[in-house]
Amino acid sequence: MEDKSCPFKIILGSSSIARRKILAEMGYEFTLMSADIDEKDIRKENPEDLVMALAEAKADSILSKLQTIDNQEKDEIPTILIAADTVVIYEGVVREKPANEKEAREFIQGYSGGHAATVGSVLVTNLKTGFRKGAWDRVEIYFHEIPDEIIEKLIEEGTVLHVAGGLIIEHPLIKPYVKQVVSLIISVNHMVGTTDSVMGLPKALTQKLIKEAL
């Protein structure tokens, strides 16, 4: 499904529906591949290092799959592999996907009337040149009080069980209770986070890295 008018191909190394939607909104056509890794085997002291390490592990897993295809040298145009990862930070603790409904409920109850943060990474690899670069951003999310019945509907619907921290600010049930999304500039080397960062793929950062990789 590559766009023939585009001077490069894109592989999105993710099974995330939100990431697919965001990349499509950016105007790109792409193919999909998923990584075979156990994310819980990768541990780092701070969330920024963790999301970068996870994105690198995903990219390496997909690259190992692509080596068996071994068709990159035959392509005249480059292929860009995009890998990404996101974690939620609550009271200084990293939250990944909830283990069960009970944990998801506890996560969301904690956000009610409070706040959480997301740290997300993007890693791009040019398969033709070997160039690889990644970066991360951070976003703070503040919430109104979330009614118990809304939390129960979210748990019953089930999507929150499959995302970092059980946090989906774009979900129709939770969106009315999002008070504020605050983007933070961490340093000159890292981008300003946005709502799409929380969803799993920051558009500005992804665009910047794609351009640098070409």
Automatic annotation (TrEMBL):
One of its GO terms (molecular function) is nucleoside triphosphate diphosphatase activity. Gene3D superfamilies: 3.90.950.10. The keyword Electron transport does not apply. It holds the Pfam family Maf. It comes from the Eukaryota. Keywords: Hydrolase. PANTHER family: BIFUNCTIONAL DTTP/UTP PYROPHOSPHATASE/METHYLTRANSFERASE PROTEIN-RELATED, MAF-LIKE PROTEIN. HAMAP family: Maf. This is Maf-like protein DDB_G0281937 isoform X5. It comes from Durio zibethinus (Durian).
